[in-house]
Amino acid sequence: MCGIAGLLDLSRSGRRSDLARRAGAMAEAIAYRGPDGADVWSDTERGIALAHRRLAIIDLTSTGAQPMVSADGRWVISYNGEVYNAEAIAAAPALAGLTRRGTSDTEVIVESVARRGLDATLAELNGMFAIALWDRADRTLHLVRDRLGIKPLFCAQCKDVFYFASELKSFASAGLAFDLDSASIASFLRFAYVPAPFSIYRDVSKVLPGEVLSVMPGGRITRRKYWDIAEVATTSLGRPFSGSDADAEAALQTLLADAVSAQMISDVPLGAFLSGGIDSSTVVALMVAARRGKVRSFSIGFPDLGYDESMHARAVARHLGTLHEELIVTAADALAVVPNLPDIYDEPFADSSQIPTHVISKLTRKHVTVALSGDGGDELFGGYNRYRLAEGPLQRLMKLPLLARRAAAVILEMVPDRAAEIFASVAPNTLRSAQPADKLRKLVEVLCLDGDAIYLRLVSHCLNPSAFTHGLVEHPIGLPASTATGQENVLERMQLFDTAMYLPDDILQKVDRAAMAVSLEVRPPLLDHRVVEFAWTLPRHLRMRNGESKWLLRRVLERHVPRALVQRPKMGFAIPLSAWLRGPLRDWAEDLLDPQRLGGSLLDVAAVRKLWFEHVDRGRDRADALWPILMFEAWRRRWASNAGVERDRALAVS
User: Fold this and answer.
1) How far apart are the C-alpha atoms of 593 and 612, rounded to whole Å?
2) How is the beta sheet containing 2-9 ordered, strand by strand?
């Protein structure tokens, strides 16, 4: 895990000494991503410079340092991530006779590209990565991102210079300034993240998951997919798994065991996050089963915040026999992270679980350099509560005529929050959920919707961003019809949207920034692309059965951990945001929402202040919509110049 940056001067008009200096400054801005080493490779005649910050994980010697040049001198690589099957690739006949300088996966990648080509290499890479490859013969720069979007990669062109970096702050260190993208602001208020390929800046974009972006001589840019989740879904749903339950369980056990074992490769201390839930417990159980020595696990508890799952993690750890570290986090500990969020997330980001994610990353980094996580299990195996809604009451209610659904919505809207909570407390486990009143409100709101509009409502933080932004228009969303699943099923559409958008743009970027801020590498073995492809072949009854989510994944876990230790409603990494905004965060929020400074003219001050008043004085819970506004304003004050914001606003309304 590292940080990469670089630039390609297409006109080759810049000063030669300036090329390497600017690339080095870009990398230095993200030094925390790689505190173990730094270097720059440049070719001033061609106008190219690649920079690298190293977090040493595999091959801790200088033979693993980057940027790295292939043995034939043609290819130069700067790479962030880990490839878990590097040794298998190195054993390919095409690499026979290669005298390796060291044992790093970087060397295997660049030599495979040199001997077999980029496409053949990408087809075999199993890992997480953001790669910059310079082809000295063809004078072409290739940027590559892993299939699921685990590792970030931004790019921008300013006049005749093309830039790339792991994080946005590198561009500022190169002396670049960009106007804000008004559509990105509106989309951010809805989703709490800026959806790819867009960024918060108009002239900066993200390389998409599974994409190769190539900058050709003369500046022509091409973008192509070498792997596409929509195509995987379409193909897999057309060839569903046809074996028995036992066959499916055995197949998933084998795949997951191999993925977890592969991701345990490391020359530095390694452990795992453990919440005691299905996903993290499965990963830790398979780490123990791999018999690579004592497994270290890490969890946090939040007794001050009204809930605490640390006892569940402790029980799973005790059963599996891990070396378990537990941090009890106070409200003060969590609140102390808030002022630092704009530096950790240099693009606006407002998933409030970013706070506990950073806290557990700091704890874990004190003991290990690499941690495995359970990210991806919800999207692949049907874990989110919205999936249960799609397969349960929503599926039945959607068969009713629109008038009947409207009547049902009116009746359900009358149910008091307390009644919903009482029902959840006595309902069977398969019908229980955390925050039942909130779930009921969402059900009411989607009853009169159809198709993808249901998903959009369920994931929206702000239902009408234009109302808070003087009418700014969002980026278009949704999957093209040509890559849709072709199945008229709400559950599968939700899973596809989540895996294509929410997973890479929210979950994975949240973890990347929270962990890399403390130089911790986090690996998600459930997102091994082989597991992803297998999961999409599973019929619905293997994902969800009789109201039980993650049905097949639970069966694999029960081979290692008794059901009683993990059978409870899904909690997630929630924080009491609503109460905090009325209490310990009120002064912080009041300062950010100061009418004289709010939004740099992009936000509608009156509309935002009304929302704030409803939350703090009227007792209405508006935290979900307020947090993105607050995170945008905190980010704007840290990163956006007033001149740039005002200029963008003028362009947006012209």
Assistant:
1) 8
2) 37-43, 48-54, 2-9, 161-165, 154-158, 204-206
The whole-angstrom separation of Cα 30 and Cα 611 is: 36
The answer to whether 195 touches 39, Cβ cutoff 8 Å, is no
Neighbour-count burial of 94, counting CB atoms closer than 10 A to its CB (0-12 exposed, 13-18 middle, 19+ buried): middle
For the chain, give me the number of helices (H) and strands (E)?
A: 30, 17
Query: How far is 314 from 555, CA to CA, in rounded Å?
Result: 21
* Mean pLDDT value across residues 163-176: 96
Q: How far apart are CA 275 and CA 289, in angstroms?
A: 18
Task: State the maximum Cα–Cα separation within the chain, in Å, rounded to a whole number.
Answer: 74
SS3 491: helix
CB contact set of 164 (below 8 Å; sequence gap of 6+): 4, 5, 6, 7, 132, 141, 143, 153, 154, 155, 156
Q: Contact, 256 vs 282, CB < 8 A?
A: yes
CA-only gyration radius of the chain, Å: 25
Tell me: the pLDDT tens digits for 369-423? 999 999 999 999 999 988 888 777 777 777 778 788 778 777 877 777 666 556 5
d(CA 159, CA 11): 9
Degrees to nearest 5, angle at CA 349 with 347 and 350: 160
Indicate the Cα dihedral angle 575, 577, 578, 583, nearest 10°. Answer: 110
The region that residue 218 occupies, defined by phi over 0 for left and psi between -120 and 50 for alpha, beta otherwise, is left
Look-up of token digits 């629109």: 402
pLDDT tens digits, 520-579: 999 999 999 999 999 999 999 999 998 899 999 999 999 999 999 998 776 667 788 999
433: its two tokens:
């959920």
DSSP secondary structure code for residue 113 in this structure: H
Average pLDDT of 281-285? 98
**Residues contacting residue 438 through CB under 8 Å, at least 6 positions apart:** none
pTM (predicted TM-score): 0.92
Please answer whether residues 599 and 633 qualify as being in contact, where contact means their C-beta atoms are separated by less than 8 angstroms.
yes
326, β-bridge pairs: 299
Span 223-255, pLDDT tens digits = 999 999 999 999 988 889 999 999 999 999 999
3-state SS, residue 392:
coil
* Confidence check: pLDDT of 645 > 50: no
Read off the tokens for 425.
Answer: 């407390």
* 3-class secondary structure per residue, 309-330: CHHHHHHHHHHHCCEEEEEECC
State the number of CA atoms in the 13 A half-sphere of 499 facing the CB: 32
Q: What's the one-letter identity of residue 287?
A: M
DSSP annotation of 304: G
